[in-house]
Amino acid sequence: MSEREEGEDQSLPTNQRTPGAHRKHGGGNGGGAHRSQGIVAVLRDIGLVTFGKYGQYVITLVTVPLIARVLGAHGLGLLAIGMSSYFIGSLLVDLGITSFLAARVHDAHDRERTAHINQLRGDYLAIRSAILGLVGATLLISLAAGASDQVEMLLLGLFAGGFWSVSEDWLLIGQGRFGSSTAYQAVGRVGYLVLLVVVLPRIPSAEIAMLCLLVSSIPTVILTWWDSLRTFGPPSRPRHFREVLRTGAPVFASRLLVTTYGQGAAAVYAAVLDAVSLGLYSAGDRLVRAIQSTLDPIGFALLPRMAKRSAESGFWRRALQALSACVCLACIAVIAVWLAAPTLIHLVFGDEFASAVGLLRVEVFMLPATTITSFITTALLPVRQDTTGVLIGAILGTCIAAVALVIAFRTHSVWTLVYGSVIVEWTVALWYLARIRALITRERALAAAGAPAVVLMREERRS
C-alpha cells in the first residue's frame, strides 16, 4: 500500500484526491508547509472525534443542571447506575475490539481489502446482533416480572449501550473519516438534548432520561449503516465469527474489567452504596469524565496515522511526544478543576450537591492516569496488536478495585469509591508505561539483530 499524505482526506477515492497529494515537496519551505498541514489535520481530527465520539459529555454538561434539579441526588444516583451500565452494555455488544478492528482498515478502496472488510463486517454483525437480542430479552423479562428500580436501570442501560454499539462507526474511524463520524453522531447528540429538555420536566424520572439516550441513538446507527452500505456494499454472510471471538476474547475480558472499575463503577458499587451517595459521586465523576473526553480523542485521531506508520523508525519517538503533551494538558486541568471545584458544583448541580466538592477535588487527580491509559490502549497497543498487555493491565486494576469493594461493604462510604478509583487508575497507568518501555526495548533488540520486530511480535502473539 502506498504512503498517503498525513493531512489527506482518506474518505475520497484515489482518483478524487488532490492531484498534488503525492507530490514530493522540495526545499525547506515545502517541508515546513507539509508539517504545518499535518499538524492542522491532526488538530482537526481531534476536534471532530471529541464531539463525535465523546459528544455525549458535551451535551451532558448542558443538560446536567436540568437533570440534577429535576431528579435530585436520589434520581441522579439511579441515572448514574444506568449510565454506568450503558458503558458496560456498549462493551458487551462490541466486545471492546472496535479500535483493533479500525486499525485493520487501511485502504477502503482496494478490492481484496474490501472483500476482507465485508467478511469481517458480516461476522461482527452476527455477534453483535445475537448479544443485543439476548440483552433485550432479559430487559423485557425483568419489566414483566416487576424488578426493582436499580435492576431496571441496570438492564435499560445495558440495552441502550448495546444498541449504540451495532453502529458502523468503527469503519469511519478506521478510514480516518472523522468528519462523517461527527456529522452522524451530532444528529443523535442534538436529539438527546432536545428530548431531555422537552420530555424530562414533564415526566421526571431516571428511566425517561435513559430512554431519551436510547431513542436519540437510533438515527446515528441508521446513518452509519447507510454510509457503510454505500461505501462497501452489504456485509458478507458470517463464516468466521469464531475467529473474531477468539481475537476479541482477551480484549473483551480486559475492557470489561476496566469498565467495571472505571466508567461502570457506579453500577458495581450500587450493591453497597445508596442512591444519594451514588448521586454525589456521579456529580464529580461527570465533570471529570467530561474533561477526560477532551483528551481521549487524541488517541482515536492518531490511530489511523499510527497504523500506517507502525513500521517507521520514529514511531515510538512520535508516540511518546504525543503522550507527554496529553499528560501536560491533563495536569493543567487538574489544577484548574481543584481550584474551581466549589464554583463548578454550585453552578452545575446546585446547593443540594455541596458535599460533592471534596469528592471532586480527589477524583480529579485521576485525570493524568486516565489520559496515559486511554492514549496507550487506543493509539499504541492496538497498532502493535498487544492484547496481552491490555488484559494484564485490566486484571491488575480489577484486583485493586475488588479490594476497594470489599472495604466498601464494611464502610458503606462513598469515599471508598473515590479513593479506590484514583488508586486503581494510577496503578493501571503505571503498568501501561512499563509495558510500553518493555515493547520499545524488545523492538530495539530485535532490530539490532536484523529481525523484523513488529512482524515477529504479532506472530509470536498468535502462536
SSE order and pairing:
Elements: H1 27-94, H2 98-102, H3 111-145, H4 149-164, H5 169-175, H6 178-199, H7 206-232, H8 241-261, H9 265-269, H10 275-292, H11 297-308, H12 315-348, H13 356-363, H14 367-380, H15 387-411, H16 414-448, H17 453-462
Would you mind describing this structure in some detail?
The protein is mainly alpha-helical and 463 residues long. The protein has one domain (42-462). The protein is 78% helix and 0% strand. The chain has helices at 27-94, 98-102, 111-145, 149-164, 169-175, 178-199, 206-232, 241-261, 265-269, 275-292, 297-308, 315-348, 356-363, 367-380, 387-411, 414-448, 453-462. α15 packs antiparallel against α16 (414-448). It is globular. The two termini are 26 Å apart.
Summarize the structure.
This protein has 463 residues and is mainly α. The protein is built from 17 helices and no strands. The two termini are 26 Å apart.
How many structural domains in the coordinates?
Answer: 1
Mean pLDDT: 76
Along the chain, the helix and strand elements come as HHHHHHHHHHHHHHHHH
Structural class by helix and strand composition: mainly alpha
Helix content: over 70%
Unreliable residue stretches: 1-30, 455-463
Radius of gyration: 22 Å
Number of strands: 0
Tell me the distance between the termini. Answer: 26 Å
Name the shape in a single word.
globular
**Number of helical stretches of at least 4 residues:** 17
Share in β-strands = under 5%
* Biggest sheet layout: none
